[in-house]
């Protein structure tokens, strides 16, 4: 079963940038999308950005024009470039893969992003 490992989180000052990476343990077949979600303390997990198998993307309104999602199919990796970071971007960021076949929905373990104001 495919596993996802995130990296690149950390502490950054407001206005700064970070790049998150998510590596899949094996080639992904039956791909619907790869994406990033986040969960702040006391809040529900929310979609940040997703890239579909055909290459189209979708972003949360709160991150549009600041975050960019991209994918390297050869490396089975997805990235999230975050710029102009705000304190409200502080959260645990999770990588997600959705598939047409089992296991259908795969999550990484999460990586902490903390933005200091």
Characterise this structure.
The chain is 0% helix and 55% strand. By secondary structure, the protein is mainly beta. The strands form two sheets. Strands 2, 4, 5, 6, 9, 10 and 11 form a seven-stranded mixed sheet that branches. A four-stranded antiparallel sheet has the order 1-3-8-7, with no helix packed on it. It is globular and about 40 Å long. 29% of the residues are buried.
Keywords:
117 residues; mainly beta; seven-stranded mixed sheet; four-stranded antiparallel sheet; 11 strands; 0% helix; globular
- Backbone shape: globular
* Overall pLDDT confidence: 95
- Listing every helix as H and every strand as E from the N terminus to the C terminus, the arrangement reads EEEEEEEEEEE
Question: What's the number of helices?
Answer: 0
Provide the gyration radius in Å.
Answer: 14 Å
Give the uncertain stretches in residue-range form: none
User: Would you tell me the structural class of the helices and strands?
Assistant: mainly beta
Helical residue percent band: under 10%
The biggest beta sheet is recorded as: 7 strands, mixed
Number of distinct beta strands:
11
N- to C-terminal separation? Answer: 40 Å
Strand content: over 45%
Can you lay out the helices and strands and say which pair or pack?
Elements: E1 4-7, E2 10-13, E3 18-24, E4 31-39, E5 46-52, E6 57-59, E7 67-72, E8 77-82, E9 91-99, E10 105-107, E11 111-116
Parallel strand pairs: 2-11
Antiparallel strand pairs: 1-3, 3-8, 4-5, 4-9, 5-6, 7-8, 9-10, 9-11
């Amino acid at each position: 079963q495919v596993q996802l490992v995130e990296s690149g989180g950390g502490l950054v000052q407001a206005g700064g940038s970070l790049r998150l990476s998510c590596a899949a343990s094996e080639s992904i077949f039956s791909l619907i999308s790869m994406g990033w979600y986040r969960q702040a303390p006391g809040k529900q997990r929310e979609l940040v950005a997703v890239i579909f198998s055909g290459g189209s993307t979708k972003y949360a309104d709160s991150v549009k024009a600041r975050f960019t999602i991209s994918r390297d199919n050869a490396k089975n990796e997805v990235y999230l470039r975050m710029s102009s970071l705000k304190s409200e971007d502080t959260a645990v960021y999770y990588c997600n893969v959705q598939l047409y076949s089992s296991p259908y929905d795969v999550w990484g373990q999460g990586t902490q992003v903390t933005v200091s104001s």
